[in-house]
Amino acid sequence: MSLDPAVYGDLLVSLLPELVLTGWALVLLLFVAWRHRTARDLRIAGWLTLVALLSTAIAVWWLWWNRAALQGPGTVAMIALDDFRWVADWVFLGAAALTVLISFAYLEREQLLIPEYYVLLIFATLGMMVMAAGADLIVIFLGLELMSVAVYVLAGLDRRRARSAEAALKYFLLGAFASGFLLYGIALAYGATGTTNLGLIGGQLSIMGKPSVMLLAGLALLIVGFAFKIAAVPFHMWAPDVYEGAPTPITAFLSVGSTAASFAMLIRIFLEGLPAMSADWRLLFEVLSIVTMTVGNFAAVTQTNVKRMLAYSSIAHAGYVLMGIVAGTPRGITATLVYVMVYAFMQLGAFAVIVMLRRRDVVGDELKDFSGLHFRNPFAAFAMLIFMLSLGGIPPTAGFMGKFWLFGAAIDAHYYGLALIGVLNSAVSLYYYVRIVVFMYVKNETIGSTPTTSPTLAVVLGLAVAATLVLGMYPQLLFQVADASARTLGAAGVTAALR
User: Fold this and answer.
1) What are residue 305's phi and psi, to 5 degrees?
2) Given 55, 139, 439, 483, which is the most exposed site by the fewest CB atoms within 10 A?
3) Distance CA 379, CA 376 (A)
4) 254-277 residue pLDDT tens
């Protein structure tokens, strides 16, 4: 079957950001094949990566303002053209750009002269963008696998450390197992509805009325696969070991980019394709949300390794974000997007401080390594203070506004118990966030040489602190963008879910 040339052209233009990033990935591959021996080559590869991400962001912006001309029959079937996709793309590209800036100092300090690092980072970002753009289960799964394979390699990039190899192996084995669940769930959904297109699945369900046993089984398998990708309890076992063992910039990218992409995929499938089954999946997600935030917070209390602490913290935050999915309303989707965006700044900023603490004589990821940081590097200590307060949901930070909106969405949807449990868990989380602050500002003993901030790390810390404070005090623009995005995402599907 041949496509009409006009339809084929629209299809290519609808994938313009992904095509631009793919082109840059090929250019970067040629560069690292030519020059890959010195630290200068590595820096050039990093700057090329930043140019690639910036040009892709420009392509996203252009397509956002010109999408009205592309609403043709060729683009509706498999590729989404909505504000949700553009906002998600900017989150992925922004997270990748900040990760690159964090990586400059880290890779040179660790003597990891591996320019392929940046190529893999681009491919992981490309996979995330495909996941957010997919309006078909097959497209979404292809994006997921592209992202996953790249991240598996990045997690084990430091072959000199046993922990890095262990992290990559655990992530690969458990990730492949979860992908099997996800793919089998997609197969059962196709068998029950006769299509993998999300819009057509929603139409089939509205005609079918009561879902079949096959579709319910497929739904259960899909939820298992998604629960692994977002590190929801009890499918979170991989997260602490992978976060601790992977190179710190990759841990930061994984905790923000991979989680955001998984939630974008989850929103697409359940709120756009399966809203008619909301009575079946909302209860499961409510239980997952409660268990995930509770286990994550209480496990983090006992940690002394800050990377493991932030791993359990990210598990707890996945539980918070699930509250927006459970609400299933436009405000719930808005709250989810807002929280993912503000979480990116505070989480990446926290990991940037850990990268800064890594010196020749100090690993930098233990609580004791933060001792006396205020007396040695006041700016880094202040930045970490802001990030910890924001993660704990203390005003006037962006984290407070994100949690306020999430809890408000749950209350609006009459999930009062879920909102109360979320508030109580936020109170518990303050204990381990404040522990870091106590080590920085109260303890006087210092370990190792004085930590210094490189120019690129200073840029990341400055941007993250500014965004965390400004978005906490003036969040209107952020809410407007997220709300517009939520209302363009499967509006008919969300309306059907509310009936």
Assistant:
1) -85, 125
2) 55
3) 9
4) 889 888 898 888 888 888 878 777
Distance CA 402, CA 14 (A): 31
Looking at residue 76, its amino acid is V
**Is the pLDDT reported for residue 294 higher than 90?**
yes
The token pair at 246 is: 């992977």
Angstrom distance (rounded) from CA 55 to CA 64: 14
- Residue 348: pLDDT over 60: yes
Helix ranges (DSSP H) in 209-329: 213-229, 238-245, 248-253, 259-267, 278-301, 306-327
Q: Which two tokens stand for residue 127?
A: 């996979």
Question: How would DSSP label each residue in 153-182?
Answer: HHHT--TT-HHHHHHHHHHHHHHHHHHHHH
Picking from 471, 464, 445, 461, the residue whose alpha carbon sits closest to that of residue 379 is 461
Q: CA-to-CA distance for 206 and 190, rounded, in angstroms?
A: 16
- Per-residue confidence at 433, pLDDT binned at 50, 70, 90? very high
Q: Which residues pair with 134 in a beta bridge?
A: 79
Average pLDDT of the residues in 340-360:
88
- Residue among 387, 354, 373, 386 at smallest CA distance from 438: 373
Rounded distance between C-alpha atoms, residue 439 and residue 364, angstroms: 13
Q: Is 414 left (phi over 0), alpha (psi -120 to 50) or beta?
A: left
- Residue 366: beta bridge partners? 305
In whole angstroms, give the CA distance from residue 446 to residue 372. Answer: 6
Could you tell me which of 234, 210, 26 has the C-alpha nearest to residue 122?
26
Region of residue 219 (left: phi > 0; alpha: psi -120 to 50; beta: else):
alpha
Report d(CA 384, CA 159) in Å as an integer. Answer: 30
Q: What pLDDT shows up at residue 492?
A: 39
Task: List, in sequence order, every residue forming a beta bridge with 79; answer none if it has no partner.
Answer: 134
Selection from 302, 249, 207 nearest residue 95 by Cα: 249
Classify residue 69 by burial, with Cβ atoms within 10 Å: 0-12, 13-18, 19+: exposed
Average pLDDT of 13-30?
89
d(CA 452, CA 376): 9
The residues pairing with 305 across neighbouring beta strands, listed in sequence order, are 366
Residue pair 38/73 in contact (Cβ under 8 Å)? The answer is: no
- What DSSP character marks residue 393? T
Q: Are 243 and 259 in contact (CB under 8 A)?
A: no
**How high is the mean pLDDT of the chain?**
84
Residue 361's CB is within 10 A of a number of other CB atoms, namely: 7
Q: What is the four-CA torsion angle of 113, 115, 121, 122, rounded to 10 degrees?
A: 170
- In this structure, the number of other CB atoms found within 10 A of the CB of residue 304 comes to 11
What is the spatial distance between Cα 466 and Cα 315, in angstroms, rounded to a whole number?
25
What pLDDT shows up at residue 6? 52
